[in-house]
């Protein structure tokens, strides 16, 4: 079994900006040769393109294949609970004096609470402490949903560190509470990988994606201006594609 910390290091080096920094360093080390200079220019070009809203939008769109959930889309047997996946914490947030949810996790929790109020379903948050420091993310999510959104939480899965573990460790909780069918809440770009992991575990999950990335036409000048948030979206898209490939390999080896 590959150590999870090693996986995170490799993931960081295989996705932007880590991959671009590595390529740039290789180019610098061989800058006296034509191939080294070419690598430097290609790295700068890749950095620019991945930092533009147009290119980041192109990378995001194939991942957002699932439409927003509507009750009419559900099969004859309705979902029995909502599972919402964690999206990151802020450890020791000084304004709260404790750990709190990061922006992605808070977006997911808000949408899960919105669904819960309209459907009457209870929520199961899933997420542990990936760096083995601070409070489990699902525990923070539970507190926010109960205390701030007034939503009933059925149970919380507090030990997972990856999307794969989200699914594997949520399954026994669902069985314990007699839940067979769930609504699965996560960002639209994360849904294909998350849904594949839950399906692999035999969980009947209906996708309820949120937080769609808006496509841009490329016709406006600002669609081609480099922005930090566009580079972040490109990095997420690359990470998701690599993650989906890794999960296919895991299923093939299982």
From TrEMBL:
Gene3D superfamilies according to UniProt: HUPs
This protein's GO CC annotations: plasma membrane
Presence of the UniProt keyword Transmembrane helix in the record: yes
Database matches in InterPro entries: Cell_Envelope_Assoc (IPR051599), DUF218 (IPR003848), Rossmann-like_a/b/a_fold (IPR014729)
Domain DUF218: 80-243
GO term, biological process aspect, one: peptidoglycan metabolic process
Superkingdom assignment: Bacteria
Keywords in alphabetical order: Membrane, Transmembrane, Transmembrane helix
Protein name listed in UniProt: YdcF family protein
Biological source species: Candidatus Sedimenticola endophacoides
């Amino acid at each position: 079994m590959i150590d999870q910390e090693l996986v995170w290091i490799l993931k960081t080096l295989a996705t932007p900006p880590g991959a671009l920094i590595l390529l740039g360093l290789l180019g610098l080390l061989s800058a006296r040769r034509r191939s080294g200079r070419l690598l430097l220019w290609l790295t700068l070009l890749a950095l620019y393109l991945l930092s533009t809203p147009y290119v980041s939008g192109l990378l995001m769109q194939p991942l957002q294949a699932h439409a927003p959930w509507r009750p009419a889309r559900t099969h004859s047997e309705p979902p029995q609970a909502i599972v919402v996946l964690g999206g990151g914490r802020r450890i020791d947030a000084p304004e709260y004096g404790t750990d709190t949810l990061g922006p992605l996790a808070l977006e997911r929790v808000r949408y899960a609470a919105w669904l819960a109020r309209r459907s009457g379903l209870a929520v199961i948050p899933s997420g542990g402490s990936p760096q083995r420091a601070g409070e489990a993310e699902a525990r923070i999510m539970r507190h926010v949903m109960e205390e701030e959104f007034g939503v009933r939480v059925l149970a919380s899965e507090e030990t997972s560190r990856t999307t794969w573990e989200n699914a594997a460790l949520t399954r026994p909780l669902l069985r314990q509470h007699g839940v067979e069918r769930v609504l699965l809440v996560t960002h639209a770009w994360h849904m294909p990988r998350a849904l594949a992991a839950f399906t692999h575990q035999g969980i009947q999950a209906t996708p309820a994606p949120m937080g769609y990335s808006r496509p841009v036409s490329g016709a406006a000048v600002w669609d081609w201006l480099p922005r930090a948030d566009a580079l972040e979206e490109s990095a997420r898209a690359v990470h998701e594609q690599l993650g989906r490939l890794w999960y296919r390999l895991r299923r093939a080896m299982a």
